[in-house]
């Protein structure tokens, strides 16, 4: 697997420091000095344009400055991890050309969302309880070695490791997070079964799991940070068939406010990944891919899941130098995002993503736009969602769906845009180049319901072409 701009690929057990790498490519500006680790997002600065036209560049500068100021002084990668380097400024030229499966170049039809079924639980699969390997799961004893032993045993049999109680997983430089290198299932068997990530020192980067193998499944578990260590709960270094089913990731940023901690980071090629009936809460990024990653994600489904209390983006499907196709986010709830600076705080972010569907979700409680589409993203459907109490910050690019930078063939249909919570001026759908970039083309906005206060509009078109509106309903609010 390739890390592209980040250096050599990590081996099993190695950890990647994501403290600054999490910053999406749209957030970076050259005027802020680098601090270690200097990670992958590239520079994009608009040369000219109105306030709305340069919003993306303001956001990058502000977010980058905030990240640099908040970086821990001990933020160097752990031994054995690649040392990332910054790419040259400018728009990436190596990214793939937009592609789409629609033969006529039109966005997908907003059909009913696909039915997603959880993985089959094989009653005949080999099964081992973590306690049989010496775990106590009393919240006090260190159960890391017992968990690793059970996983090693069951991986050889493509089996199931069962977990009950409150298991403390203490990570150190010598005994880092758990590597999942082959097909295995880790399943909770009691309500609230928890694997708690602990660390001998909070100044070193830590992860719970590093996934390098195919067909890894996590089921009915809570993965919780026990201390203020910085890092990530799950690093996906390359996998097909990775599944989270009924899993809670709790970064506890509401308790440990000082250190950056993410839910899931993508560093390598993925295929047919699923997040089903799961929750990511109180993290920085819930899920993200660094801008330097050049591999392909071919299929990532998020269904019936919950995202709440996260500090940056909930789901950041970010591939300016890689490729992401067939991304589906359905039937999920996004709420109470805690971003307080421009540059982040999105429910779903798409950058150079092809063939995506965001459907049947609820977005409630965002200072900034819940859906952010940019950087050559194409054949995207935003359908049957409810937006309320969103982009409440008093900024002139306020919107619920924001589309920019050469994105094309976007359909926005069947949504309810409720601006009753917006005292600020807002365009429910914002379309335009977003600075000194190619403009947006072929956007269809149809069959939506707009509940508009006097300061709200249905669509703000700031230079996009091929924008059509039809069959929308406007309800005027006092």
UniProtKB/TrEMBL annotation:
Residues 1-120 are annotated as: Disordered. It holds the Pfam family Beta_helix. SMART domains: PbH1. Residues 79-90, 110-120 have a biased composition (Pro residues). It comes from the Bacteria. Residues 54-66 have a biased composition (Basic and acidic residues). Residues 263-445 form the Right handed beta helix domain. Residues 1-13, 67-78, 91-109 have a biased composition (Low complexity). InterPro entries: Beta_helix, PbH1, Pectin_lyas_fold, Pectin_lyase_fold/virulence. SUPFAM superfamilies: Pectin lyase-like. Gene3D superfamilies: Single-stranded right-handed beta-helix, Pectin lyase-like. This is Right handed beta helix domain-containing protein.
């Amino acid at each position: 697997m390739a890390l592209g701009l980040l250096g050599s690929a990590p081996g099993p057990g190695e950890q990647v420091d994501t403290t600054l790498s999490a910053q999406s490519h749209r957030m970076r500006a050259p005027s802020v000095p680098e601090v270690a680790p200097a990670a992958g997002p590239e520079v994009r600065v608009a040369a000219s344009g109105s306030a709305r036209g340069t919003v993306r560049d303001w956001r990058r500068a502000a977010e980058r400055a905030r990240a640099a100021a908040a970086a821990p002084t001990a933020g160097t990668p752990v031994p054995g991890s690649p040392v990332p380097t910054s790419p040259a400024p400018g728009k990436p030229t190596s990214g793939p050309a937009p592609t789409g499966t629609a033969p006529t170049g039109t966005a997908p039809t907003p059909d009913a969302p696909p039915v997603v079924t959880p993985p089959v639980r094989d009653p005949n699969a080999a099964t081992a309880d973590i306690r049989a390997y010496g775990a106590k799961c009393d919240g006090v004893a260190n159960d890391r070695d017992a968990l690793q032993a059970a996983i090693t045993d069951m991986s050889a049999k493509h089996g199931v490791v069962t977990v009950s109680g409150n298991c403390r997983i203490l990570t150190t430089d010598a005994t880092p997070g758990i590597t999942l290198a082959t097909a295995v299932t880790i399943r909770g068997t009691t309500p609230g079964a928890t694997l708690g990530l602990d660390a001998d020192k909070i100044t070193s980067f830590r992860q719970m799991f590093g996934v390098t193998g195919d067909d890894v499944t996590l089921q009915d578990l809570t993965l919780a940070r026990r201390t203020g260590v910085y890092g990530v709960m799950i690093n996906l270094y390359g996998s097909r068939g990775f599944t989270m089913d009924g899993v809670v990731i709790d970064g506890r940023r509401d308790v440990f406010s000082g250190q950056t901690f993410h839910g899931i980071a993508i560093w390598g090629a993925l295929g047919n990944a699923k997040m089903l009936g799961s929750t990511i809460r109180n993290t920085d990024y819930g899920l993200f891919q660094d801008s330097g990653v050049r591999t392909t994600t071919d299929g990532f489904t998020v269904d019936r899941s919950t995202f709440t209390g996260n500090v940056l983006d909930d789901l950041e499907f970010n591939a300016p130098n890689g490729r992401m196709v067939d991304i589906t986010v359905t039937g999920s709830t996004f709420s109470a995002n805690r971003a307080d600076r421009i540059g982040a705080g999105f429910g779903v972010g798409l950058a150079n993503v092809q063939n995506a569907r965001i459907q049947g979700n609820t977005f409630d409680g965002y200072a900034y736009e819940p859906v952010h589409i940019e950087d050559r993203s194409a054949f995207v459907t935003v359908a049957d969602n409810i937006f309320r109490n969103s982009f409440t910050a008093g900024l002139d690019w306020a919107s619920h769906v924001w589309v920019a930078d050469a994105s094309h063939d976007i359909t926005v249909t069947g949504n309810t845009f409720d601006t009753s919570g917006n005292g600020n001026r807002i365009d429910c759908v914002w379309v335009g180049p977003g600075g000194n970039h190619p403009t947006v083309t072929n956007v269809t906005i149809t069959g939506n319901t707009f509940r508009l206060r006097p300061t709200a509009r249905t669509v703000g078109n700031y230079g996009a072409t091929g924008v059509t509106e039809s069959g929308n309903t406007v309800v005027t609010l006092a």
